[in-house]
From TrEMBL:
This is Carbohydrate deacetylase. Probably catalyzes the deacetylation of acetylated carbohydrates an important step in the degradation of oligosaccharides. Keywords: Carbohydrate metabolism, Hydrolase, Magnesium, Metal-binding. The keyword Magnesium applies. It comes from Pygocentrus nattereri. InterPro entries: Glyco_hydro/deAcase_b/a-brl, YdjC-like. One of its GO terms (biological process) is carbohydrate metabolic process. CDD domains: YdjC_like_2. Belongs to the YdjC deacetylase family.
């Protein structure tokens, strides 16, 4: 078998969100359209998801959640992490509280550790990788705590959401483009922190520009094209480049959100499913990822789907 040009981890995020999401993700895995999942341990169907991962031998990591639903750590039911209703502050609310200086990092650390332990209870092993729901893990201050928790548990891999081609992506609406650019800025500032703690991540990250209705064969091909270009760029920067280094596969993670749409009031992390989960966007991603044209393209381009433990 020829050496692949790209080792691609296609990670289905939000595993555990609801049973319909879980079944969609598993169907994707069985069709070899995704190769990895990221589990929300505080979600309504986390136990169901963990059982499916065991049954189908799906590589699984932890989708650390500080922004949606209720905390795992019971002692934090009254803390800076939650609002007056007892839930996390939300995607933007978490960022606002953090920026105000009112977030207690000891409470962040306690919740992250509790989620790792809950993951172990559900699956019987440590996460193969750990990232952050809604990219909270690269935010200022949080990234230091996050990296320390990974280091302490011996979790080797995370996600650094810096996507090549993000700045030349005109089809994103302004609000989403602004959010993604801020995610990229935070991620770039996380690199030194993760390096210092011995945490690793793939050479290239993809997924900010291919979510929901923006996922298409053309857009995925465009994103993967940037990854192929990055492979040559990485090779060109090596000082003492040997032949084996020049032709080594580039490692890439593609973040995806496939699934069957959630029913109202079923799923979520304690507050019910959000609009994105109930929309057709999840099904659109599922169908796009399983498209034989895309799967054939992987083979033609020497793209091998794998998991983090295959690096």
């Amino acid at each position: 078998m020829p050496q692949p040009k790209v080792k691609l981890v296609v990670t289905g995020d939000d595993f555990g969100y609801c049973e319909r999401r879980n079944h969609g993700i598993v169907d994707c895995f069985k069709d070899r359209a995704i190769s990895n999942v990221s589990l929300l341990v505080n979600a309504a169907s986390a136990e169901h998801a963990a059982e499916l991962a065991k049954r189908h031998h799906i590589p699984i990591g932890l989708h650390a959640n500080l922004s949606e639903g209720a905390p795992v750590c019971q002692e934090l039911r009254r803390s800076t992490l939650i609002n007056k209703d007892g839930f996390f502050h939300g995607k933007m609310g978490f960022r606002e509280v953090l920026q105000s200086g009112q977030m207690n990092m000891a409470e962040v650390e306690a919740e992250l550790r509790a989620q790792v332990k809950r993951f172990c209870e559900l699956t019987g092993h440590l996460p193969g990788h750990m990232d952050g729901h809604q990219h909270v893990h690269v935010l200022p201050e949080v990234r230091e705590v996050f990296a320390q928790v990974l280091s302490d548990f011996g979790i080797s891999y995370t996600r650094v959401p810096v996507e090549p081609g993000l700045h030349s992506c005109p089809f994103l609406p302004p609000h989403l483009r602004d959010f993604n650019l801020q995610v990229e800025k935070d991620a770039l500032q996380s690199v030194e922190v993760f390096h210092r703690h011995g945490i690793r991540w793939p050479d290239v990250y993809l997924g900010l520009t291919t979510m929901g209705q923006n996922m298409s064969f053309a857009n995925l091909k465009r994103a993967l094209g940037f990854a192929m270009e990055a492979r040559m760029s990485i090779a060109a920067r090596c000082d003492d480049l040997g032949a084996s280094d020049l032709y080594r596969p580039i490692t890439v993670e593609l973040m995806v959100h496939p699934g069957y749409p959630s029913h109202p009031l079923q799923g979520g992390c304690g507050e019910g499913p959000d609009d994105f989960s109930q929309s057709s966007d999840r099904l659109h991603e599922l169908n796009t990822l399983r498209d034989p044209v895309l799967l054939s393209y992987y083979k033609q381009q020497g793209i091998l789907l794998c998991a983090f433990n295959d690096f």
